[in-house]
Amino acid sequence: MSWITAMPAFVFGLAAGSFLNVVIYRLPLGRSVVRPRSACPACGRTLRWFENVPVLSFVLLRGRCRSCGAAISPRYPVVELLGGFFALLALWIRGGDPVGAAFVYTFLMALLAVAMIDWDHRIIPDEISLPLLAAGLAWSLVNPALGPLSSVAGALAGGGSLWLVGAAYRRLRGVEGMGGGDVKLMAMIGAWLGLGLVLPVIVLASFFGSLYGVSLMRRGGDGRTEVAFGSFLAPAAGVCLVCGQAILGWYLGRFGI
Ligand SMILES: [Zn+2]
């Protein structure tokens, strides 16, 4: 990847990250992601164009609203930078295949949105998981390394296994442990990554979740805090997208398959 393709891709990614901030903030509230223009959440004043430049505005305004002085969350520039970084990552993964890079980028950005929204609201919007499930199945038709059979099987195994976990939890504890949103998210992830990576994603997400559980206990909690599993599934899926083949090779090799 030369800098001639990397630079515009990164700048495009920053702008897409800026749009993703709007999606993360508004979608769970049921508000339009197109209108009205972005405003300061504290004073409600509509932002001027120069206050809306990804990353740069945050740095120049020193993280504060120009009129009311309210602090702007550093999450906004972080999501913008991730948007830029994911654009480079997608190009790197798919090499000289622009259609593939666009697919991979869409998947990564959807995972980022899901992780943030689930963290904030404990919900995973169907508006993301269902269209992306369809997109994952479409991706399998143009990606011979995945293939439609593995994609469909991955969606069924992914959604099915989390549905079973939820049903078992409900039986044993009498409470909802796994939401329907998690089931649909894992079906979506299975469609994108294929059958072989369903188990690695769930194992890795549980590992991330347990790391978080451990850190909660260190802070004096009882470790049983209900966590948003989607916020761990999404980064696990991202990791498996990038190094899934290496993970698969490792664990198949271990068992001599
Ligand atoms: Zn303000």
Can you put this structure into words, describing what you see?
- The protein contains nine helices and no strands.
- Helix 1 runs parallel beside helix 4 (98-121), helix 4 packs across helix 9 and helix 5 (126-142) runs parallel beside helix 7.
- The chain is globular and about 60 Å long.
- The protein folds into two domains: 1-96, no CATH class; 125-257, no CATH class.
- The two termini are 35 Å apart.
- Helix content is 68%, strand content 0%.
- The protein has helices at residues 3-26, 56-60, 75-94, 98-121, 126-142, 148-173, 180-193, 198-218, 230-254.
- The relative contact order is 0.09.
- The chain is mainly alpha-helical and 257 residues long.
- Residues 40, 42-43, 45, 65, 67-68, 70 line the site of zinc ion.
Oligomer: single chain
Give the radius of gyration. 20 Å
Total count of domains: 2
Order of helices and strands: HHHHHHHHH
**Overall number of strands:** 0
What number is the mean pLDDT? 89
Largest sheet: none
Please report the number of helical segments.
9
Which ligands does the model contain, each kind named once?
Answer: zinc ion
Overall morphology: globular
Instruction: Estimate the strand proportion.
Output: under 5%
Low-pLDDT stretches are none
Helix content: 55-70%
Distance N to C terminus? 35 Å
